[in-house]
Amino acid sequence: MTDRIDVGAALRASLPHALLDTVRDHLASAYGATSVHLFLTDYGGTVLSPCDSPEGGEGSLPIAGSPEGRALGSQEPREQQAPHGEAIDHHLPVTVRGDRIGILTVRLPAGRSTPAVLDELRQVAGQLGHEILVAERDTDVYQRVRRVSRLTVAAEMQWQLLPARACSAAQYAVGARLEPAYAVHGDNFDWASDGDELTLTVTNGMGQGVDASLLTHLAVSALRNARRAGVGLADQAALADQAVYGHYRGRSHVSTLLLRVDLATGRMEIVDAGSPQMWRLRGKSVERIELDKQLPLGMFEESHYAAESFTVEPGDRLLFVSDGVYEAPSPRGRKYAEGALARALHATRLLPAAMAPGAVLRDVAEYRAAETLDDALVLCFDWFGNDLR
Fold first, then answer.
1. By CB atoms within 10 Å of each CB, which of 81, 100, 101, 125 scores lowest?
2. How confident is the model at residue 8, as a pLDDT?
3. CB–CB of 23/104 below 8 Å?
4. In sequence order, what DSSP letters do the residues of 95-142 get, joined into one string?
């Protein structure tokens, strides 16, 4: 058995771009691994892209239908017989606090593929995931791998502003997805937890391209600034409203839904400042939660905001969607929210929060009459309460 501390220490000492080479060296030495490959989830959430040197010769893999994709979806290691000889490929999820970064595939001789070794490989995959997130501050290697096509400048700005695509804790799980992933401009999501409460925001900046991204960037930065100053939810909205109005003088505004969840009780505070909608799946019942609509951020000078209360129960799933989702028209002109959205919530109820938004957006793409330039955002929030999952 290898010393996990040595692997972790080696990863921390590694050059940011060389994490995979460091893992290869250790696994070859400790287990006789004959190949080690890392595949990262692309921005669109449909492809696993190889993080290999050019001589690796490995290509991208579809998430749907591949053994690696099934390991990513189940979050459990999967074994596959290697094409030649008696070696076994182990596909190991690389996940950090619910964010499904990718898959580490390790080929071992059959005799070395024991439960104890597999447990250690899982630990190595987790350590690698953490170090990738740290390394991304200093190298473009991993972000470059995630791109199967070029991002627009507006999308580049939005992806740099976003948190992870998923996050989980004992009481909750959150997952979100944006489309078009490589050309998004105005939609955004954000979250932060301090241990006692979780804050979520879903934002839709008006306009197109870089202008929309700049507007959203200002609003989200102002919201974060207010949140980090420790002010209440309504005051966060008011301060962000002032920041947007101060710059645009009412010419542009931002639709935002702000929520804060008490992690001990499930009690929520909500400020509905615009167009994002909230839907709830409780048992077999799906309904849109109607909220007290208030002015979008930046529309008028010194707008005032008030938070309303809402309580989630263990087992509840909340879905937050932008207008690019609920207003998507069918070929007959019927909006997605008029029946299809509720069906999609039912159909995806068994998927984890990290996977449900992508499934809903695929359903939206099949539903609507034609391609659209509008952004589409889905954020899924599962509440477990303080019971063990």
1. 81
2. 87
3. yes
4. EETTEEEEEEEEEE-GGG--HHHHHHHHHHHHHHHHHHHHHTTT-SHH
Q: Give all strands of the β-sheet with 254-262 in edge-to-edge order.
A: 187-193, 197-205, 254-262, 267-273, 308-311
| Residue 27 CA to its chain's centroid (Å) | 30
Q: For 333, phi and psi rounded to 5 degrees? A: 90, 5
Cβ proximity of 66 and 35 under 8 Å:
no
Cα 319 to Cα 336: distance, rounded to the nearest angstrom: 14
Q: Which two tokens stand for residue 84?
A: 């030649």
In angstroms, the first-to-last Cα distance of the chain is 31
Which residues of the chain are under the pLDDT cut of 50? 1-4, 53-57, 388-389
User: What pLDDT score was predicted for residue 58?
Assistant: 53
Alpha-carbon dihedral 67, 73, 78, 84, rounded to 10 degrees? 20
Radius of gyration from C-alpha coordinates of the chain: 22
Three-state DSSP class for 240?
Answer: helix
- Specify whether the CB–CB gap between 175 and 379 falls below 8 A: yes
As beta bridge partners, residue 357 has none
Count of other CB atoms within 10 angstroms of residue 203: 27
Residue pair 53/35 in contact by the 8 Å Cβ criterion: no
CB of 306 closer than 8 Å to CB of 234:
yes
Strand (E) positions, 247-342? 254-262, 267-273, 277-282, 285-288, 308-311, 317-321
Please give the pLDDT value at position 323.
94
CA-based torsion, 148, 63, 278, 98: positive or negative: negative
Half-sphere exposure of 1 (CA within 13 A, CB side): 12
* Local structure of 38: helix, strand or coil: strand
